[in-house]
Design goal:
alpha+beta, about 35% strand
C-alpha cells in the first residue's frame, strides 16, 4: 500500500486566496494614506469667525456696488478679457479695476488681473481657462465695492454682472 503524503499548505491555492483578501485591503489602505499625505486640498479655513466677519463686509461691498448702479459686461477671449463697466454717475468709474478669476475647487488656477482702461472700458491679459464653472469677482483698487458673477466655460463667454438684480 502506498501512502500519499499531504501537500504542504503553502502549495495549496485556498490559503493564498484567503491571505490575498486582507493583504489587498492593507495595500489599498497604504496607497490611500500616501495619496492623502502628498496632496493638499487648500479648502479648509482655520479661523471661521474671521471668515464670517469677512462675509458680512463682502455683502456691504456688494450693496455699495448696487447703490452706485454698477453693471459690468465681461467678454472672455482665449487670452484676454474685456469689461464694459457702467455706473449711474461717470465719476464713480475707477481708473483701474481688479478682476479675480476663481476656480471653485482648484486654488492653483485662480488669477488676479489688474484691468486698465478709460471711459468704463477695461482690458487685460488672461491665462487660458479650463472647461468648467468659473467665478468672476470685479472690484475697484480701494476695494470699496465688489461685483460677483459666474460662468460655465467654454459655452458662456459673455457675462453680465448686475449686483442690483441679485
Amino acid at each position: 500500500m502506498t501512502e500519499k503524503k499531504p501537500t504542504p499548505w503553502y502549495r495549496q491555492g485556498w490559503p493564498w486566496f484567503l491571505i490575498a483578501l486582507p493583504a489587498t485591503a492593507v495595500v489599498a489602505g497604504i496607497i490611500t494614506l500616501v495619496i492623502a499625505a502628498r496632496t493638499f486640498d487648500g479648502m479648509v479655513v482655520d479661523d471661521y469667525y474671521k471668515e464670517g466677519r469677512a462675509i458680512v463686509q463682502t455683502l456691504d461691498r456688494v450693496e455699495r456696488a448696487s447703490a452706485l448702479g454698477l453693471v459690468a459686461d465681461l467678454k472672455l477671449r482665449s487670452d484676454s478679457v474685456r469689461i464694459e463697466l457702467s455706473a449711474l454717475h461717470a465719476d464713480d468709474l475707477p481708473a483701474r479695476a481688479i478682476l479675480t478669476v476663481i476656480h471653485p475647487t482648484r486654488d492653483g488656477q485662480d488669477q488676479e488681473i489688474i484691468m486698465t482702461g478709460a471711459g468704463g472700458v477695461y482690458e487685460g491679459r488672461l491665462a487660458p481657462l479650463s472647461t468648467g464653472r468659473w467665478l468672476f469677482q470685479l472690484e475697484d483698487e480701494s476695494r470699496s465695492w465688489r461685483m460677483n458673477g459666474a460662468a460655465y466655460l467654454p459655452t458662456e463667454t459673455e457675462i453680465r454682472i448686475d449686483p442690483s438684480s441679485s
